[in-house]
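Moderator note: this is an archived Q&A kept for reference. The question asked for a predicted structure of one protein chain; the sequence and the answer are reproduced below.
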Amino acid sequence: MCFSRYCWLLLLVVITTKVQAATPEPDFAASTELQVTPDKCISLQQGRTCYSKVTASWRSQTPLDLCLFMHDQQLHCWQQHSSGTFVFEFAAEQSALLQLRQQQQVVQQVLIEVNWVHKASRTKRHWRLF
């Protein structure tokens, strides 16, 4: 066992090197921002299709090749851009996940929530006059 100054110095160098190696480098996902407006769609009754005009905007600090996806369907792509906007007609019965991807890696994602005013009733109402 060594308690001299040189051993402590060596131990300090080893610890510092391990801490620096464990620190992750900043990636493009942390520097990319995705905004969706509106992020909620309101349907009159549960189970009915909700319709809305949605604007998806993104920006990044560096130019990237990105594609916008919903339900694994490609909506739009940008080549070497640092920002982009895409407007589309949203039509769904359930909430949908909108993803911004570089190749197959998800960079950012936003959930478009589908809500309803009236919950679907399970019983049918039968009207009788007599």
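Archived answer notes: Residues 5-22 form the longest helix (18 residues).
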